[in-house]
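Hey,
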Amino acid sequence: MASITSPPPGFNDALLNEIVEEYADADARADIEESDFKNKELQLPKSGMQVRETYTMYAHFQLVARFLKNAPKVRVFMDQDSGFRAAFMSAYRDRIKARTADGFFVKVAKDATAYQKQRAVIDAKKKLIQFMAENGITDEYSAQVEMMKLNVKAATPIGRWGDKWVSHPMPIASEPRKQISWQTNLGDYDENHEARLLLKPHCMLLTGFL
């Protein structure tokens, strides 16, 4: 089954290729939570000390979790990073079990030209209007939910853990192609709830990372 925004058959999907490479990179590390390979360009300080990246990550997520302890629901949208995921799971483990916190990986195509970005938005709008006409849907949000449900069914499992990546049906100019992986899907939300959640992530939330 093809998703609403899937590329033509045989098309080299650069965004999915990036996602695959991220998983391969994580698998190659001795500690999967470490994301800072050392080489000529990236080294430890020659004098003094540096706090380990993983310690900083865990501390950050723990601190934000304390700030948000009274929030009824927490939705965390993260760059695809195994360290982020582990730190999030550690900080929100009880809330994840209680279904008051969810975490998502978000990957966005960043190297599109201005023309490609404009075309992506125009084409998506045309597909939305066509989808509404074909299915007798009168409001855009309901149509987007139905489109996302189709994309969920066509989700691409990637990596050792078979994480499913879903294509977002409605790009914006700054995000001409977007893939989302729901990392805390316990299979207990109905398909409408799941689709509504997967419509939420966008880069402005990621760039607001403290």
